[in-house]
Amino acid sequence: MSPAMHRYRTHTCGALTDALVGESVRLSGWCHRIRDHGGVLFIDLRDHYGLTQVVIDPDSPAFQAAEKVRAEWVVRIDGKVRLRPEGTENADLPTGKVEIYAVALEVLGAAAELPLPVFGDQDYPEDIRLKYRFLDLRREKLHNNIMLRGRVIDGLRQRMKQGGFFEFQTPILTASSPEGARDFLVPSRIHPGKFYALPQAPQQYKQLIMMSGFDRYFQIAPCFRDEDPRADRLPGEFYQLDLEMSFIEQEDVFAAMEPVITSVFEEFGGGKPVTKGWPRIPYAEALRKYGSDKPDLRNPLVMQDVSEHFRGSNFKVFARMLEDPKNQVWAIPGPTGGSRAFCDRMNSWAQGEGQPGLGYIMWREGGEGAGPLANNIGPERTEAIREALGLAAGDAAFFVAGDPSKFYKFAGLARTKVGEDLNLVDTERFELAWIVDFPFYEWSDEEKKVDFSHNPFSMPQGGLEALQGQDPLTIKAFQYDIACNGYEIASGGIRNHRPEAMLKAFEIAGYDEETVVERFGGMYRAFQYGAPPHGGMAAGIDRIVMLLCGASNLREISLFPMNQRAEDLLMGSPAEVTPKQLKELHIRLNLPQK
Description:
It is built from 18 helices and 22 strands. It has helices at residues 63-68, 126-131, 133-136, 140-162, 203-211, 250-268, 283-290, 307-310, 316-321, 340-352, 372-377, 379-389, 404-421, 463-469, 499-508, 513-527, 541-549, 579-584; strands spanning 24-37, 40-47, 50-56, 74-83, 98-109, 166-167, 185-187, 195-197, 216-225, 236-246, 280-282, 304-305, 328-334, 359-363, 369-370, 396-402, 432-436, 441-444, 449-452, 479-484, 487-494, 534-540. The strands form five sheets. An eight-stranded mixed beta sheet has the order 6-9-10-22-21-20-17-11, with helices on both faces. It has a five-stranded mixed barrel with strand order 1-2-3-5-4. It has a five-stranded antiparallel beta sheet with strand order 12-13-16-14-15. The termini are far apart.
């Protein structure tokens, strides 16, 4: 060994090839797997870059030390590179043609008995995986997901800069927002009794950046929401590609962002086909056809309103419902689902979802309909439904009835269930779409008033005139989402940049001028001094990476996530703080009685 050799390594564990045969090398890494083949030890040595096979036989000076080594010990190995014996090469490994014959081994870090295995990516209880996340992250699949995440963020950043966007950072300590129920609050030591909030999104700041004349902004922004956790939303914090543009209309945002998102899915999606020329689906149409404002378009099933075929029919349950003009009957087609077994299974699934059941018609060979509904409404109506849905012998249709605003979500679940159970969903592709024309307001049953349905800063379609003269519940917004494979991956809008229109919009939702000034003083003031028309969106980085990795849970693509109860099991947070800290902050705890 030359005296100049590096203390820990001359090469990484992914670098050795047959070109180096005969050379003396030094590697350091983790003992991934240790095998004893009749007294000869084989160690698969692993680091960030790859795996190298090390051979240590009883003649080697390193043998005695090697016998003590166990899985996940960190060791330094010196040895000679040699070709693997014929027939033992591993074509799956970049280093699979060679091995190291070890002459020295130094233990750099011994490992206690492992609470979870690193070798082999088998499932393991989540609380253990999160508590020992540093072990979990050594596992190949998770390690690769995290590296892919970094490449995706690089890719997004590059494309945004090429598109003429500039990257700015907005404050993390900010003011509590109007829908403040979900804010994380940070007490101020210097201002007793006052609180900062962590931003749920950089919404107001990015609009202020436009008022400040910077034209095009983006940021890979951390966002904080104190929400109940879901599989597709991390508790606590998540990252989004946040952006805003000046002097633009909705079409300009689409033109800027569609190629960015499409090309990221093409580059990192493992070669799966990606939608070219995204469809634009109005919100109301998405609910009617797919029962969702984030439809999975890999599922070919499209629901239809078939009320006319049941109106005045002998199927009294539906016929009576349809006497109320707001009620409808929707059909979910089930190609190839025309068996009693499948229809019964769907019916009991619906009951499990809290529904009375799920009516169905099956079409037998020869084309006549079967089942209780078909018998009640008769062959003519049954045939008309089959034609409307484009179905054939061996197919089925399922029916949901009532007030669509109350049942559309269930109908959407049923569409998903039918599509998946009949294997109609092509899972090997990315189907992207713009969902447009969201309603500006909705009726809040809890508060018995009109409220914002999405983003209060959006521009209503029709502007101030619409706010002054139209039924609020019929006003649409310049508001749009991106849907991909059943997930909402981005949301945005054109902003309402006119102070009088902003006041009117808030007034309809029950906020007076004083409240608007108090809560959005900075932005409202900025609107008075020459505000450019502007708009933008934010795309969920975590969800995009989750889709690209083929993971079904966001914890598979983030380094140190919390569990479902919003706890960080690794760091032990949230945690209690000392009385001294509380005293400095002038805070006294008022804990619920046990």
